[in-house]
Design goal:
The structure is a single chain. The chain has 8 helices and 14 strands. The strands form 3 sheets. It has a 7-stranded mixed sheet, sandwiched between helices. A 4-stranded antiparallel sheet has the order 2-3-1-4. Strands 5-6-7 form a 3-stranded mixed sheet, with helices on one face. The termini are far apart. The protein binds S-adenosylmethionine. S-adenosylmethionine (SAM) binds next to helix 4, helix 5 and strand 9.
Length: 278
């Protein structure tokens, strides 16, 4: 599969500009982002690439910034090598969980060692939203809890939950590449109790869960919260991320409409994770 690498240069090159740009590009189908100077590298499959879509997004960009871009078509294989060599460094959470790739050999003793070979899927732990949910997971008792990871990307959240004792687990992603990468990572970590499916909330049926993670984006969450609420067990927790602090009221209202109780939120660089309970 061929990918397009789009190089955005932003003036001013602030985190606010690149974060908002990345969030809007994700809605156009961009799958991976790397901060660069000055701006952002963004990647998507060649068949989803449209110059018109990007031009329109930049015309309507609501922050005061000058953004220019250029692009190259790259082979998937080269992308993986580049990613592995330059972009993905091991990352540690709360001194007890390390996420690294199979080409890293980090020292130190950690209760949870997660191996992720990310390819094009989102979820190395480096994005604020992944980190927010990983920290929530580390603070929970997941022993024998059934877990759904919607929008699983690399499946990093489901893998940590499984290592923390959750059982059984279901991980779902709408993107075929993420689905295949999730399968690979689950296998790589020797985990046997995570089912991985390719699709979206329409796959949810009679199976119910004690805990649901959904780190996707504001619009998909607003659309799918009713489906998640339906399959959440009484007393169960819904962990949502992929949106900004200013989106909390809309997300909270949608959860409350479905009979969920708002519990708390955590925040990093204006990205948030919200926890609700049924
Ligand atoms: C922000 S990434 C999160 C990945 C990973 N869970 C993490 O926390 O790092 C969002 C993922 O949701 C997937 N996605 C987008 N829309 C979806 C939908 N309607 N249903 C399921 N997955 C979806 C994307 O393909 C992407 O892999």
């Amino acid at each position: 599969m061929k990918y397009v690498e789009v190089i955005f240069s932003c003036k001013p090159d602030t985190e606010e500009v690149t974060d908002v740009l990345a969030a809007q590009l994700a809605d156009l189908g961009f799958e991976s982002f790397v901060k660069s100077s000055p701006g952002l590298l963004a990647y998507l499959p060649e068949e989803k690439f449209s110059v018109e879509d990007i031009d329109l997004l930049l015309q309507d960009f609501f922050l005061d910034a000058e953004i220019a871009y250029s692009y190259n078509v790259i082979e998937d294989k080269n992308w993986n090598e580049e990613w592995e060599k330059h972009y993905f460094q091991p990352i540690v959470f709360e001194d007890k969980c390390i996420i690294h790739s199979s080409f890293h050999h980090p020292e130190g003793s950690y209760r949870y060692r997660i191996l992720i070979d990310p390819k094009m899927a989102f979820g190395t732990g480096h994005h604020q939203t992944t980190g927010l949910i990983l920290r929530e997971i580390l603070s929970m008792d997941l022993q024998k809890r059934s877990v759904l990871d919607m929008g699983c990307g690399t499946a990093v959240l489901a893998i940590l939950a499984s290592m923390c004792g959750a059982d059984p687990l279901l991980a779902i992603d709408v993107d075929e590449w993420a689905y295949r990468n999730a399968l690979e990572n689950v296998r790589l970590n020797g985990i046997e109790n995570i089912d991985v499916l390719h699709g979206d909330a329409r796959l949810l049926g009679s199976q119910t869960f004690d805990v649901i993670f959904a780190n996707i984006n504001r619009n998909i969450l607003l659309q799918d919260i009713p489906a998640y609420a339906k399959v959440l067990n009484r007393g169960g927790k819904l962990l949502l991320s992929g949106f900004y602090r200013e989106d909390i009221p809309a997300i909270r209202e949608k959860c409350e409409e479905q009979g969920l109780l708002y519990h708390h939120f955590s925040e990093m660089d204006n990205w948030v994770a919200v926890v609700c309970e049924k």
